[in-house]
């Protein structure tokens, strides 16, 4: 097989390639950094000739032309597994729909029944053996391409080639068409500037982390803040096992804290399934043998996590009720992100020998009118999604302390959770707990 000849035979312009899409098709754009740009723009130009095309994607970092083009909703329906800020705005405008998922199950959704008529995935340049690397997004990419009837790759030479432990590449012989994105750019994700509250919460968690722990950080400023404080701490010999690779891990590596040498499995190697961050982060993962991408059904599998000693998982949320139910993805009925892998890691951290799981959040927020509101509520807001059931929560953290919930009764939970609420708002929560029959009157005096 002459791979150069095969490559040239399959190379098309974006306009030529998207002619493979028919009305009524299910088209898959992949996830985050492997969502296509040229192919998206070319497909949008077919807006007036197509109808009923359903498109799946997730964490879109740049605007999608199939959403922005005129009369888009007659031709295309865009559906996301996990909202970025852009997709959230589109959802608010009725231009995007959410697909509920548990992230570790995403590959099985495809392999066990989802239809993919055409997959359009952005990949790195082909190597000398004819393979295209999935680069910054392993996730469920292999499962999507295995399921697809037609595979179109958008080659973006800006995408780094990364070390992969499994399912991180595809061979040219398996591809139907190739489109070159010569002007390909990489989206950057700013880590955000931590607030004073973020730092207070991070400082609650830091003493709970031990030397030799393996760290998972969820998406958002608050978990990233914990990682940056770890980089400045005296902790040693830390490991990485995460779904999302963010800049805080690079900070930990550069400060000598992240070595992966104390891990009892995958010793010496940090595992991740998708990467979003700075240019420096993308340069760090390129051809780096000490970090490896794996499919999400491996990184997020609690059965894998329970084999990792001292796994410490750190995530954030939107709202918590006094039963211990956690909402991390919606504000009432308004979808703002997604379930993602939070429940995967909440479960995995608890199952790990010596492991710990933390869900952190600021105790309050202010409305547009300036009113102080509690993120700890009697029951979740109407329509609020239970991302983590009360049965799986180990530790909740605010700037006012940590509530350890595993194995505790409803009144013990109520007491522990109210104790980390804003002091000015606790009495109201106690009255709610009393009305809900989950408050012990004898404890009220002690409280």
TrEMBL record:
* Lineage top rank: taxon: Bacteria
Family annotation (Gene3D superfamilies) = 4-hydroxybutyrate coenzyme like domains, Acetyl-CoA hydrolase/transferase C-terminal domain, Glutaconate Coenzyme A-transferase
What are the record keywords, sorted?
Cytoplasm, Fatty acid metabolism, Lipid metabolism, Transferase
Q: Which residues are responsible for catalysis?
A: 243
Q: Kindly give the Pfam families that the UniProt entry links to this protein.
A: AcetylCoA_hyd_C (PF13336), AcetylCoA_hydro (PF02550)
Which InterPro entries does the protein's record reference?
AcetylCoA_hyd_C, AcetylCoA_hyd_C_sf, ActCoA_hydro, ActCoA_hydro_N, Butryl-CoA_acetate_CoA_Tfrase, NagB/RpiA_transferase-like
Q: Which reaction does it catalyse?
A: butanoate + acetyl-CoA = butanoyl-CoA + acetate
Residues the entry annotates as binding CoA: 218-222, 318, 341
Entry annotated with the keyword tRNA processing: no
Enzyme class, first EC level, given as a word: transferase
> Acetyl-CoA hydrolase/transferase N-terminal domain: from which residue to which, for each copy?
7-182
Q: What is its main location?
A: cytoplasm
Q: Family, per the entry?
A: Belongs to the acetyl-CoA hydrolase/transferase family.
Which protein are we looking at? Probable butyrate:acetyl-CoA coenzyme A-transferase
What organism does the UniProt record list as the source?
A: Fusibacter paucivorans
Q: What is the lineage of its organism?
A: Bacteria, Bacillati, Bacillota, Clostridia, Eubacteriales
């Amino acid at each position: 097989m002459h791979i150069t000849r095969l490559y040239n035979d399959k190379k098309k312009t974006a306009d030529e390639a998207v002619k493979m899409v028919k009305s009524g098709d299910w088209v898959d754009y992949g996830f985050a950094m492997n969502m296509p740009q040229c192919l998206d723009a070319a497909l949008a130009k077919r807006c007036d000739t197509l109808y009923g095309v359903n498109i799946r994607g997730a964490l879109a970092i740049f605007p999608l032309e199939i959403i922005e083009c005129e009369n888009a909703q007659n031709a295309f329906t865009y559906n996301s597994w996990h909202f970025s800020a852009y997709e959230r705005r589109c959802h608010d405008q009725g231009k995007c729909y959410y697909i509920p998922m548990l992230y570790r199950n995403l590959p099985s959704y495809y392999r066990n029944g989802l239809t993919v008529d055409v997959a359009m995935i952005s990949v790195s340049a082909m190597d000398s053996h004819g393979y295209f690397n999935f680069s910054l997004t392993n996730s469920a990419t292999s499962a999507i391409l295995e399921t697809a009837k037609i595979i179109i790759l958008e080659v973006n030479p800006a995408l780094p080639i990364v070390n992969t432990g499994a399912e991180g590449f595809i061979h040219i012989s398996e591809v139907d068409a190739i489109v070159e994105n010569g002007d390909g750019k990489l989206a950057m994700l700013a880590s955000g500037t931590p607030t004073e509250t973020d730092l207070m919460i991070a400082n609650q968690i830091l003493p709970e982390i031990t030397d030799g722990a393996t760290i998972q950080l969820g998406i958002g400023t608050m978990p990233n803040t914990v990682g940056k404080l770890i980089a400045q701490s005296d902790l040693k010999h830390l490991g990485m096992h995460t779904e999302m690779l963010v800049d805080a891990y690079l900070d930990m590596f550069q400060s000598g804290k992240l070595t992966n040498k104390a891990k009892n499995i995958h010793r010496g190697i940090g595992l991740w399934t998708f990467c979003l961050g700075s240019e420096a982060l993308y340069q760090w993962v390129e051809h780096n043998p000490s970090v490896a991408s794996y499919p999400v059904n491996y990184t997020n599998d609690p059965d894998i996590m329970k084999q990792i000693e001292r796994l410490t998982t750190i995530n954030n949320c939107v709202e918590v009720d006094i039963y211990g139910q956690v909402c991390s993805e919606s504000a009432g009925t308004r979808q703002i992100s997604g379930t993602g892998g939070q429940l995967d890691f909440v479960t995995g951290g608890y199952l790990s020998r010596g492991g710990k799981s933390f869900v952190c959040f600021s105790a309050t927020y202010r409305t547009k009118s300036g009113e102080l509101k509690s993120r700890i509520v009697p029951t979740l807001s109407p329509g609020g999604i239970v991302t983590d059931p009360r049965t799986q929560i180990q530790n909740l953290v605010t700037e006012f302390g940590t509530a350890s919930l595993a194995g505790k009764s409803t009144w013990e939970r109520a007491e522990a959770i109210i104790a980390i609420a804003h002091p000015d708002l606790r009495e109201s929560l106690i009255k709610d707990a009393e009305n809900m029959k989950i408050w012990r009157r004898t404890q009220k005096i002690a409280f």
